[in-house]
Design goal:
By secondary structure, the chain is mainly α. The protein has one domain. α3 packs antiparallel against α4. It starts with a strand and ends in a 6-residue tail after the last strand.
């Protein structure tokens, strides 16, 4: 049994979210104003789109916080969301390609990236499934279904292609299986099979191989494949301890590609220095801490797995983005949650946070018999 405490959500996690969101507004404006002026003749274009995404996302947070029933444990809702996500991922391939990829669907003039929704739906599905089958997780015939779902979602995303997001989703799903009680020997078999598939797709595209080689030898082709990583590290390094001040970044002036999306952390490092980058890193670590605490205190195992799974997928994505910016890993095309420009990512990240906060409002109770 559980008690729902209205407005009893985790205030620390909410404050961390608001701070990261505010930093995102500042950095999107700073890093995109010149590009927006040239491309759209409106220097506030990307900033306004980010504000709209945040408004929709925060409206979802407010709505989710008011839901008294644990909807993330409802079979109909969980499977409906999963089917919707898979359907939208499949629909991407009948939509016109954008920059030679099929990552978005467009309806009524609004562009949406279904892989962002798939992160939430897969976590909720696995949390629901693992609780219902917790006594039979050592049987392969039971594990076939969740593994097949993970494989389907992963393959649809990797075919878009979006290798980084596919790897993130599959790794997060595997971690949830482990936390849910699946034995390591079964996960080892799954990991080996997945490793072969990911390796095949990695070496099937020359640009992915070039990202690996440029990471291994960043100084070998600075004006070619190593240009983006080099400019990213140059931006972070030029910021020093306190940065060059807000709006004064030089790398965003067409030196660093994707300055307002995948490499926004580099611009933050240039304008706010080591102090700024460490502050953001500490905020994500605090986010991780609060999310894990909420998961540990959740009254049901499904709530625990959902809170931990959503927390991990947000924080691991942040870590992947930061490692790429700092030259500690090859480019993956993964945005920095709550900070990088992108309405789909922002709305879905805030929706995931809303679910975590909803779970934090629930407290277990015990029944005393007389």
């Amino acid at each position: 049994m559980e008690i729902f405490r209205s407005y009893g959500f985790d205030k620390a996690l909410f404050v961390i979210t608001v701070i990261l969101l505010a930093v995102g507004f500042i950095m999107v404006f700073s890093s995109s104003a010149n590009l927006a002026s040239e491309k759209y003749n409106q220097y506030l274009h990307f900033f306004i789109q980010q504000v709209i995404g945040a408004a929709v996302g925060m409206a979802l947070v407010v709505f989710i916080l008011t839901v008294r029933k644990p909807f993330y444990q409802n079979t109909v809702i969980v499977y409906a969301l999963l089917i919707l996500s898979v359907s939208l991922l499949a629909a991407c391939f009948v939509m016109p390609s954008i920059a030679r990829v099929n990552r978005w669907i467009t309806f009524f003039g609004i562009r949406f990236q279904p892989s962002e929704l798939a992160k939430i739906s897969l976590v909720l599905f696995l949390a629901h499934f693992l609780e219902r089958k917790k006594d039979r997780l050592d049987e392969w015939r039971v594990l076939i279904f969740p593994i097949a779902v993970m494989a389907l979602v992963t393959l649809l995303i990797i075919k878009e292609p979006d290798y980084g997001t596919a790897l993130l989703i599959f790794a997060s799903g595997g971690l949830m299986l482990y936390l849910g009680g699946v034995k390591l020997r079964n996960l080892a078999v799954l990991g080996a099979a997945a490793g072969i598939v990911f390796a095949v797709y990695l070496f099937s595209a020359s640009y992915r191989v070039e990202r690996i080689t440029s990471f291994m030898s960043p100084d070998k082709d600075i004006m070619g494949k190593g240009f983006q990583p080099y400019q990213s590290k140059l931006a972070v390094g030029s910021g020093g301890l306190l940065g060059v001040s807000l709006g004064e970044s030089r790398q965003k002036l067409y030196f660093l590609p994707y300055a307002h999306t995948d490499f926004i952390y580099a611009i933050l490092g240039e304008e706010f220095g080591l102090l700024g980058t460490m502050t953001i890193l500490l905020l994500f670590l605090a986010f991780l801490w609060r999310g894990l605490v909420i998961g540990a205190r959740a009254p049901t195992s499904a709530g625990q797995l959902a809170a931990v799974g959503l927390t991990l997928i947000i924080c691991v994505q942040a870590l992947l983005n930061i490692t790429v910016v700092l030259g500690m890993g090859p480019a993956k095309g993964v945005p920095l949650p709550l900070i990088s420009f992108g309405r789909s990512s922002l709305v879905c990240t805030l929706a995931a946070i809303g679910i975590i906060l909803n779970i934090s409002q629930r407290k277990g109770t015990t029944v005393t018999r007389r």
